[in-house]
Amino acid sequence: MSQWIPWLSHFEVKVAEIDHQHRELFRMFNELCDATWDGKGKDSIKASIKFLAQYVVNHFATEEKFMTHHKYPRLPEHKKAHDDFTAEVTDFIQEHEDKDISSELVVSVIIKLGDWTRDHIRGMDQELGKFLNTVALLN
Ligand SMILES: [Fe+2]
């Protein structure tokens, strides 16, 4: 599999469930770029994008479960970042539902989603990981 959006070990936030889902997300991003570039059918690409979007929603729910359970003080702004991103992805899917999408567009959108995810992990998720490791998980 090509590393369109490489996973680097320093992205880990040291919370097993979250790290597992992050790695899985990157695997899906790369798999989707490969499938698109290999000229896989548009319907299967669209189905994969929808699956990926649902995975993202479930993943955000996992992080928010940790935040709620451990009373993370920055929950509101972290959740807002999740909600804004979800809305953007949902809009893209709805807008392109019945349209023919080019491979270039799919790859560029996936790379954009991957960039956002990487930046989000390095910022907000790292901070959450530190909180969970130093404050919450020790209690
Ligand atoms: Fe997050």
TrEMBL record:
Residues 15-130 form the Hemerythrin-like domain. InterPro entries: Haemerythrin_Fe_BS, Hemerythrin, Hemerythrin-like, Hemerythrin-like_sf, Hemerythrin_metal-bd. CDD domains: Hemerythrin. It holds the Pfam family Hemerythrin. Keywords: Iron, Metal-binding, Oxygen transport, Transport. One of its GO terms (molecular function) is oxygen carrier activity. It comes from the Bacteria. SUPFAM superfamilies: Hemerythrin-like. Belongs to the hemerythrin family. This is Hemerythrin family protein. It comes from Desulfomonile tiedjei.
